[in-house]
Design a protein that fits this description.
The chain is mostly beta strands and about 160 residues long. Strands 1, 2, 3, 4, 5, 6, 7, 8, 9 and 10 form a ten-stranded mixed β-sheet that branches. It starts with about 25 loop residues before the first strand and ends in a 6-residue tail after the last helix. The relative contact order is 0.25.
């Protein structure tokens, strides 16, 4: 999710409406295992974000799932980078794995697909910032594809 906009109010509930199924409890960890998490409510309908910031942060599109009720173990290795006035990104300071995006001051997380222990339960149901996607790759299948402005409008956010 691009950090170059005015953010929405914080929420403790995962975003609804992805349509992939019921919320599930999931676990995950970083590459080295120093940081792990449990998430009580994960929306199995993931989105792929093509914004410039997510691509630079993850090395490609950020494929992630909305979650609430997230608890981390190994907090000594968990670092948080303030990537904007309203957003922050979490990573393992030992191995560098990117783990989440979060609205500052909220307990709502956008957890990276690669960090889940059982990623097969999750499914890409949409793409956002499609207008920033490079021409070097494409996702197959029929699903929602929103421009950055369309996605922000769906959240009630007005770009600066």
């Amino acid at each position: 999710m691009s950090d170059e906009t005015k953010g929405p109010a914080a929420s403790s509930e995962p975003a609804a409406g992805h349509g992939a199924g019921e919320l599930t409890a999931e676990t995950g960890r970083c590459l080295c295992g120093a940081v792990s998490f449990t998430a009580a409510q994960v929306d199995p309908g993931m989105h792929a974000c093509h914004c410039r910031i997510c691509r630079r942060w993850t090395g490609g599109p950020s494929i992630s799932a909305n979650a609430a009720g997230v608890a981390f173990a190994g907090s000594a290795y968990l670092s948080v980078y303030e990537s904007s006035a309203w957003g922050e990104r979490g990573f393992c300071r030992k191995c560098g794995s990117s783990l989440f995006f979060r609205l500052q001051g909220s307990d709502r997380y956008i957890l990276n697909h690669g960090s889940f222990d059982n990623p097969d339960r999750l499914k890409v149901v949409g793409e956002i910032y499609i207008d920033e996607k490079p021409s070097s790759y494409d996702f197959k299948g029929e699903h929602e594809r929103l421009t950055g402005d369309e996605f922000l409008a769906s959240l009630g956010i007005t770009p600066e």
